Amino acid sequence: MRIAMGIEYDGSLFSGWQRQAHATGIQEVLERALSKVADHPVAVVCAGRTDAGVHASAQVVHFDSAAPRAMRAWMLGVTCNLPPEVCVTWAQPVAEDFHARFSAVGRQYRYIILNRTVRPSLLRQRVCWEHAPLDVARMAEASHCLIGVHDFSSFRAQACQAKHPQREVYSLDIRRHGEFIYLDIAANAFLHHMVRNIAGTLMAAGRGDQPVEWVQSVLEARDRTVGGITASAAGLYLVQVRYPERFGVPQIAQLPCLG
After folding, report:
1. Domains in the chain and their CATH numbers?
2. What is the pLDDT of residue 107?
3. Which of 27, 34, 78, 121 is the most exposed, having the fewest neighbouring CB atoms within 10 Å of its CB?
């Protein structure tokens, strides 16, 4: 049987999603917990491999198992064997052709900025801190050029392994709630560090370091060296993965709200 799961995690203490030889990834602890419940080795495939320090409220994985377990047993049993920073939020059987990564037709991230003079303590690993005042209206205006199908080479990490830099951004919404700024972006897929590089570039416009029109010129340059900084991993959350309706997979955006 092929089973899909929703996974939530605080990525602060992990080296990222992927299993690694000399560090602990979320994949490693999840496969260990699944193997214990299944009573046989289990390998998982995820919808999106998040970097070190990045969080998820709605990661999706799939795995295959012949173990006779109720879906509630998979969800609760696996969670009981996971560290407190990781849990399973749902589990259900899916069609054999379901693939957590390749069946996905869209993904959404939320980037959270704490915009105040004093650095955070309680939220130091959960937000990106920016001490300089940010003008959200300028950031929103600057972001309009990023919506649609574009070559996002200027927002792509040098180590990105994607076959091409073209992506379609469906929506990009920026709003302030008190000291917090929420950047919500949805696309068919993302390049390595794409959201963090977009956030860093828009923050430069929001501080007034660059004019609003500069973001358009960065996009058109197709050159990572002309863009803004790569913003902190701490503020990034994978909040939704969308699939064709025929798979029947839960896909409501789970949006963390800190203020």
Report:
1. 2-103 (3.30.70.580), 106-238 (3.30.70.660)
2. 97
3. 121
